[in-house]
Amino acid sequence: MSNKSFLKWLDEYHERTDLNQLDYSIMTTLINRHFTGVPNTIPIFLDNTLEHEQRRTQNFVQPRFDSYHLWQQSHEIFNPFAPLPTNIIPPETPLEKIEIHSNIETINDLITIINENPYNEKAEYNIDLKTLHKIKPELVQLNDMIGLVNLKKSILDQLLYFVQNLCANDFKHTVLLGPPGTGKTEVAKIIGKMYSKIGILKNDVFKKVTRNDLIAGYLGQTAIKTRKVIDECLGGVLFIDEAYSLASAGDLNDSYSKECIDILCEALSDHKSDLMVIIAGYEDELNETFFRVNKGMQSRFVWRFKMEPYSANDMMNIFNKLVTEQSWSLNSDTVNERWFEDKKANFVYFGRDMELLVTYTKIAHSRRIYGKDPSLRKIIISDDMNKGYETFLKNKKEKKDQHYLYGIYV
Questions:
Q1: Which of 161, 206, 232, 289 could lock onto 247 through a cystine, CB 3.0 to 4.6 A?
Q2: CATH level 3 topology of 312-399
Q3: From residue 409, how far is each of 8, 353, 357 by CA, in Å?
Q4: Comparing C-alpha atoms, which of 211, 82, 104 is closest to residue 158?
Q5: In CATH, what number does 107-306 get?
Q6: pLDDT in tens, 239-281
């Protein structure tokens, strides 16, 4: 029986509505014999004529399992007695084994592995390449952040530990140590996104809170407020910026602060498998306040990442990056490291101050080019930067460093 005739026979048999156990037994036998090439000896299907024998010999071709498998799928076959046929199993194609060896020292090394090794479902790898491909956008985003060399190495250690499923029953809670304006919020978001993609966290929840979101004005209400925030973050990340503000170094017996921090400490253990708490702030201030109120906090934050203050060169690169991302450009002789080095002492909020400087520089530029040749638009020159810096200093003095334009550098 040829494949074509075989499928035609299946179609005719499939249209019958009075099949019984014997019918299914006959069908199974015929299907098995079709694939093995054994002659049909079932009396009701015999045709011993010479014409039939010649036709059977001429039409017989190597049976194909995929033709029957596709027929089953197209007809959505369901057998109330048993699967048909039970002893016909397609040969398994062995997975290609691919060994990827690389000395991982930086985030960029991981990105290189991803770029050089497209993921193939039919291959077996010695590393979890599929997961690495999932988090490539976050790895690139982290790698593209200016500076932060030591921080990136620390996050790499954490990632390699988590991605190999070696972190069962371990705390994931993390401390980002460093001054304002070094990108702590952005780093926390990247961490949360990565770990939700690799399954360490169940969802993509990220909630940033401060003291006002956790502590109420009445004793007892703080507990309710804090627990509500924790419940909203289960399965994701709770990011507490300036965590030292939850307690006062001068009054460690503040009942409101203690109530909040005690509940947080309890939640860190109760939800260690489905919650990641990231706190940020200066190291000394956190040690004198947040960690002093409840001694159990120290042991629950096992991951501590230090974010170094930006150098003059880093701030120059941040400024250039912000300008480029906004589709503006810089005159070739406008920006140099010496300009930023001379003014570094006034940029105490680093990246945040660069965002302000870009804004004030653009404002100065708009004043300079008003009514002039349109070709001058959005090309910043040194005069724009100097005027922008003057505005920056003026507003800094008037606002007493209370910046109100925020971006990723917080």
A1: 289
A2: Helicase, Ruva Protein; domain 3 (1.10.8)
A3: 69, 9, 13
A4: 104
A5: 3.40.50.300
A6: 999 999 998 766 667 788 999 999 999 999 999 999 999 999 9
